[in-house]
Amino acid sequence: MLEFSLRVFFRRIEIAGEENIPREGAVIFVLNHPNGLVDPLFVLCLVPRRVSFLAKSTLFKMPVIGALVRMIDALPVYRQQDAGANMTRNRETFAACYERLRAGGSIGLFPEGVSHSDTKLRPLKTGAARIALGARVDSKREIVIVPLGLYYTAKASFRSEVLLYCGAPFSVPRVKLDDDGEPPRTAVAELSERIEQGLHDVTVNAETREGLALVSRAGRIFSIPATDYDKDAVLTREMRLRRRFVEGYGYYRVNAPARLAAIERRIARFEKHAELLNMDDESLTATHSRREVMPRLFGRALLSLLLAPFAFVGAFVHYPAYRLTGWLSELLARKSEDVVSTYKIIGAILLMPLTWAIYTLVIGLNYGWRLGLCALLILPPCGYVAVLWQERYGRFISDARIVLTATTRRRSLERLIAEREAIRSSIVRLGDEAGLSVE
Predict the structure, then answer these.
(1) What pLDDT digit, counting tens, does each position of 96-109 carry?
(2) CATH of the domain spanning 2-200
């Protein structure tokens, strides 16, 4: 159910570096934390082994969410900043972690401590290193730490995309505990630093929002149609590219800010011209040959027509629950973007089945239970068809825009595409000069 909900909410889900995940033995998974309770769900659904996550104790007391964290076998962490938290109970949690690791199990945790929407990792807490070193003392098994990076294209948006990037595992050293039963501070600091480096290697970290915004805009200049390369590595390529762009931005921000500003002005002019032509990223990167576009255009038009009746039913039935879920999510999140999708997914899990039940009951009472049962079987697929129809229709409009622009304003389109390639070449040259390949 949880994996199905994720695959409906997110249009594309990728996992890269899966070979770095040990299939057996004691493992600690450490992750960045940009998206509330959605973050651990990806690990639970995508990682090919059972993982027990550490979660703040206050979550266990919340309606619905408390049931969810218990269902995924989470372990409570008691934090000083949480009112009424009994910090001494963390010993029980640490003991439970030791037991699972020494038995060859795996746990997952977020060393940053909280979910957030910052442009880079927050300073890490020492809990991950302390648990790892404490478990290693009496363990006959090797314990490894695997850093996992979560990369979202638009984490709060329905039908956006996400990448789970698995870094290289590294072993936990064996140390002696001090008189208080704690690992030495130097060992904790060294392992925490190693964990931080591992997370930096699998995440995108920008110093400023302005820098991240420019990197995102430059990244769109490099976007290419998914059909032209490995469809299963679209987000992996994008994430690696943005990491290099962030490095390049940091270099030129210090060493040649004028050149960086010139690129930004050039990108702004390009975006303005693209807007005037009503051409989006997909339109600019697609083929503009009418011989290739027209068959695809007619194919998508035919598919849209065939699916339209089912899509209409799905949209009509599910739209109230969809809108209510979005409104409640924004209200409950209180402008905290890192928890919006958590509330949206939980809301959909609750409200969509309620919608089906109401329609089944109404149709069954008025027209007979056979029709009511048919409605129960038909309505959920119709809802999914409505989502797919909207996406296919959007692509149909994109193709139509290509044909129209290529017919009526071909020279303007060609100049725009030439400018895009010129900007791309300029960024490549900047990367080469900084010693950062962007190809």
Answers:
(1) 999 999 999 999 99
(2) 3.40.1130.10
